[in-house]
Amino acid sequence: MKLLPAILISGSLVAGAYAGSAFVRTAPFSIAPLPGAEDVSGEISAVDLEANTFTLWVEGDASNIQISVTDETVYMLNGEASTKEDALKVGHLANVAHEELVASSVSASTPE
């Protein structure tokens, strides 16, 4: 049997087998950044849904950065698939995969 290489996607193992087309994925599924994307984490400090932007306070850099979202941006909230309106709320903590400050994915969580 000829096996394809396994791929690790943010803690989830995805493997494919050539013979029989078997696929394995461990739960929970999470979003993996696109190749070339950068990751940034912080607290959402402002949201403008109409302009498709939000501001992220990055404590380590002591700065705010404005991030744009598109129709292709994928959202998660507390580990579950989400919508832009639910995930992008002031006070949520967020990990954002982006390229040139355009988000490919936003994984948000409510503060504890």
Description:
The protein is mostly beta strands and 112 residues long. The chain has one helix and ten strands; from the N terminus they run E-E-E-E-E-E-E-E-H-E-E. A seven-stranded mixed β-sheet has the order 6-5-4-9-10-7-8. The longest helix has 4 residues, at 84-87. Mean pLDDT is 78; it is low at 1-34.
List the helices and strands and how they pair.
Layout: E1 7-9, E2 12-16, E3 23-25, E4 38-48, E5 53-58, E6 63-68, E7 74-77, E8 80-81, H1 84-87, E9 93-99, E10 102-109
Parallel strand pairs: 7-10
Antiparallel strand pairs: 1-2, 2-3, 4-5, 4-9, 5-6, 7-8, 9-10
Low-confidence stretches: 1-34
**Structural class estimated from helices and strands:** mainly beta
Strand content: over 45%
Count of DSSP H/I helices: 1
Instruction: Please trace the helix and strand order, writing H or E for each element.
Output: EEEEEEEEHEE
Largest sheet data: 7 strands, mixed
> What is the number of beta strands?
10
Task: Note the overall shape.
Answer: globular
Strand order of the largest sheet: 6-5-4-9-10-7-8
Q: Rg from C-alpha positions?
A: 16 Å
Q: Give the end-to-end Cα distance, rounded to a whole number of Å.
A: 48 Å
Overall pLDDT metric: 78
Helix content: under 10%
